[in-house]
From TrEMBL:
Full protein name: PaaX family transcriptional regulator
InterPro entries, A to Z: WH_DNA-bd_sf
Superkingdom of source: Bacteria
Organism: Imtechella halotolerans K1
Amino acid sequence: MLDSLITSRTRLRLLVKFFINAANKGHLRGLADEFQESTNAIRKELNNLTEAGYLEKEAVSNKITYSANRRHPLYMSLQGIVHKYIGLDTILETLLERMGAVKKVYVIGDYAEGRDSGTIEIVVVGERLDTAYLNQLEPKVAAEIGREVRFHAVSTFEGDGLLLYGGGE
């Protein structure tokens, strides 16, 4: 869907990196290594996104670090589009629809760090969660969004991740 609108694969990967999780940051060489692309391709897209105001840059030591510009008027819209592109909205909707007493839902692993690796790991926090339902849900959601999904049901979670849902404390 989004890849037909944004034809630059590098630009799309950068949007996912920075807009899936506002805490994500990156610098030129690190992004080039992560995406396994040339620094010139990354530099060009970083410059375009920065000039458009979607990214901010900050000089840290001898590196320029990039992050999403949270003050941009389209920030929330872009984040929503990226979440839809990845399928996070579908995952959350499906989970909350029939799962029961879900307290929190986190994305962990590659997607929390902005890497579109193809496997989304979701931690579902709550008491007496229906793990059988989660197991049957994985292939259904995967078929719908085109990415593998792994659910982890836990009663508490202290790790790092991107909080998608935080109700029911």
